[in-house]
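Appendix B.2, paired examples.
Example (i):
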Amino acid sequence: MENKFFNLEIFKFVFVSVLYSIGFFILYFSKLSLSYITVFQSRLVELFILKIQNLSITDFLLTYFEPFFIFLFAIIFFSCGLAFLSVNKLGDLRYFLILIFLPFGFLFNFSILFIFFCLGLYIVSVYVIPLGETYERELKKWKHFRVGSHAVSKALFILFLLVFAGSFVTYSLDNSYQKSFMNTTTSSLGNIISSEVNNIQEGDVKDDIIQKRMKEVREQYPNLTEEQYSEIEKKLRNSINSTFSTEDINMSGVVEANIENSLIVESLYTWFPIFMSFGIWVVLEFLRSILFAPISGIFSYIFFKVGKFNRESTENP
């Protein structure tokens, strides 16, 4: 019986290790990094104003949000492992889960964020086991679903706090993220302004301006001939075209010149690590509530049904 129990423990450890390994591989192939997130956030307004116009919603999401969708699958695998641990309790072997993370450090260059993430995942992997036992004793309704959803939700809350801390430390120690954010933001704003100027030149706004001016001219000079009115309108149109042509300049340079001494930009540099890290944490918390917790509940329900016999046999030898 002891040999059977030991083999079951080995199976649990290997199963969780496989789930975590898949999660790390998916996370690696997503190519999602703090550099990508920083640039993406600085271009977010431009994407929704300019890029979405030429693409369908599906193409737009797949083109610009693909790394984030892949990231979701990675966290789902981690959540599945945590849900398994909350249902099928792992003994002392749980303390060796840290060994799973070490080889993946070479893929992620042992970055600060990777270290914080692994530390958080190890802590919650150990923590979710007694947490699952507590919920299993206390919950009465929808127990099989709620054990996993509640336990994993609490575990992910702790994990995402460690992600917040790792992001904050990384942003604080490396100023290149700030420079990248500001350069991309400046370029993005310049692109938006240039696009709006071009729309004015090519659209109906310019004609509206001419019509209003000509209406004023006709009211002030009612005795002119139509030929004279046409000549005035022609000169007015040339004048407006000339004005727009002289304004067709490097908008990125204009934006940079106007915002480099801004108080908002100074505040942005000061609070950059905290607001970027906080933004990441808010998104993760939102996904935890609407996606990861419910999915973990489904995994929990499945593991209760599939693993019921094994758990009863080990609890009653």
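Example (ii):
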Amino acid sequence: MKSIKKYITLIILLNFVLVTCSHAASNTLEQNSNITYESNRTTTTSNMTEETSNTTSSNVTEETSNTTSSNTTVETDLDDSSSNTTTVSNSNSDDVSSIEKDEVEDYFATIAVEKESITELMEKIEGDKLLDAICNQQTALGNTWMEENRDTFANMNIVLYDGDNGDGAETTAEVSCDLTNNTNTVLKSSDNYVHTGISAACFITKNDGSEIGVNLGEIKISLKGDISGQGNIGEADLSLMQQELVDEVSLENEYYRAADMDTSYEIDVIDLSMLQEYIVNN
């Protein structure tokens, strides 16, 4: 009987041990499973973080690269634009010739008319306006004496030469301008037509009767449109204008001024148009 009880007790204890061990094993397995899950989740999170970091870094790098590339492109475009502007500027500069301003020659050009006699030209000279041009021209050259003493000038004689006004040149016409009353007296007349290439010289008498020679250099009269210097404006002058514009001829001095129809000190298509219009209408 005791043996049976002892045996039953042993079975109960063994069963308890088995249940306990089974329960402990179950808990251990669950814990291990949780640890594995946490580890996997940590690994996944780490992978996600690394992937995010790589993606962000890649995007930042790519964005920076694109931005840099974009900026480089803009800078290149600006440089190209500047280069093009310079090219256009140089092209314009090379295409148009020019001449210096001369107020005395400009004054004569404003009163010179085709098929008008030299005497008629002389009669149209206004002494005060011509003196203004002379003083302005001399001042521009650094000589202020004319402007400072103009109130002492009483009379101005203008002498024209049909050609250069050098030594031995024959006087073509002469006029005396009274600067006080602004009147003219023709001293020597000429029925020859006005044309490009006539030279001019000036002599001034002061209020005290003393005479001074004004060195104006080689003053040349230009008749607008009379590029050939023949005094008749026509197809020959138009041809010379066209040749000047395509660099087949090079006009100089008074002949250049004759082609400068609008007195802009350069010859361009505007002058050509004005000359064509003048020929058609006259």
